[in-house]
Amino acid sequence: MNTETKDAVIKVENLEKYFGDHEVLKGISTEIDRGEVVVIIGASGSGKSTFLRCLNCLEDPTKGSIYFDGVDIADVSVDINIHRQKMGMVFQQFNLFPHKTVLENLTMAPIKLKGMKSDEANEMALKLLDRVGLADRADSYPSQLSGGQQQRVAIVRALAMSPEVMLFDEPTSALDPEMVGEVLDVMKSLAEEGMTMVIVTHEMGFAREVADRVLFVADGIIEEEGTPTEVFDTPKSEKLQNFLSKVL
Amino acid sequence: MNFVSFSNWITTAPSWVASLPEGLQSFIFQLFQTFVFADRWKLFANGLKITFIVTIGALAIGIVIGLIIAITRTLYSNYVVTKPPFVLKVLNALANLYLTIIRGTPMMVQLLIMGFVIIVPKTDLGTILCGILTLGINSGAYVAEIVRSGLMSIPKGQTEAGRSLGFNYIQTMWYIIIPQAIKNILPALGNEMITLLKDTSLVSVIALRDVTKQAQNVQSLTYNALVPYISLALIYLAIVIVLTRLLAVLEKRLRRSEH
Predict the structure, then answer these.
(1) Contact residues on chain A for B81, CB-CB shorter than 8 A
(2) pTM value?
(3) B160 — contact with chain A (CB < 8 Å)?
(4) CA–CA gap between residue B208 and residue B51 (Å, rounded)
(5) How far is it, in rounded angstroms, from Cα A223 to Cα A241?
């Protein structure tokens, strides 16, 4: 058995995505190993968010394969719902359920989808909330929380399903500057615990600090990839140099 | 004994009535004739029962049809760039046909067709069911559009959050989208319920003895239109006022999560 592919959680092969006639992803192949933290950077419109959203098929891939735990989830005959339970996702706009309390936001999926008992789910949810310092807000509604608090809840809501991978789609882009830190801290601690993470972000400092590997996406392909040091300090492609000169 | 004359009644009436002005005397007589004589209030009470049964039954059918149609049409409209599956295309076409026919013809005509062409009920129960079904099918078309507007009012991110946790489309709708949509559409849905209640007065054309039909009966028994019909109007008005209040309370409770 090939040890290199053995612990790849996600393996993407020649992924293409069209919106109508517009080709957004032009053939992306990569592997994400268990415990790896991969940060995806790129200009807006480069396809980086679309790529991330293809990983759990929120966007249906037009062509190519996405193997998750060895199953090609890009195949329409696969029950994607089962696999999504193991892939947590955090959105730019938090997307908490406004009609549910914070606690219910966390317990809903484990109860309905995994058949967890409600006491058990509540206990687990409180532990998770405690971990992000929000146990005292369990009975609040999302609208009563700040943006940073909502995003922290959104992260633990995804964790409540005990996912194998966490996908982050610009998790700090909609936050006021003073709240970015608290969310990044939670993500950092997740990374330290060995969670497999794929993160689309504009926070270059965070990427440099936390990422095992950085993917630079431009015009629908992976233009360049490498360790943070390689990508940020010795960028090879002109596009990446250009991009970095604008954001750093 | 179906009729009592004023001169007969005044001899049996309490003495204080005789001391009132003549116009008032005759009004009290008409009230007596409409409600008290031969226990005619029971006609109104029985009529009200039918009105309520038809309203609630039709509302239930209307909401079920409305939800199904609305979800079908919303699902269909999600396919913008890719082609929808064939089954969905057929369902959507049927939904559109239904909406066009129901919203394009008067409720009265629909009742006449259902009552005298399609169902032709022979029993009382059959007539009630025919009334419920017709009104329910009619109401469903309006509920569908209300529900659809509600579903569309929920941000796409809510669906994505539900789906990303592993809920399938129906579960996402049921646990996440519909509860929020209901809150947004409650005023419009309440309006539809009130309209439906008032529209039940049309079921008298298929000989259903609702409260309107009973008022007509009393009018023909007493040769007096003013009191039965004004009373009828007041009965509807009272129910609508109570319903409006109840809906306001419900709306307030559902808004709990928005502070």
Answers:
(1) 18-20
(2) 0.80
(3) yes
(4) 9
(5) 11
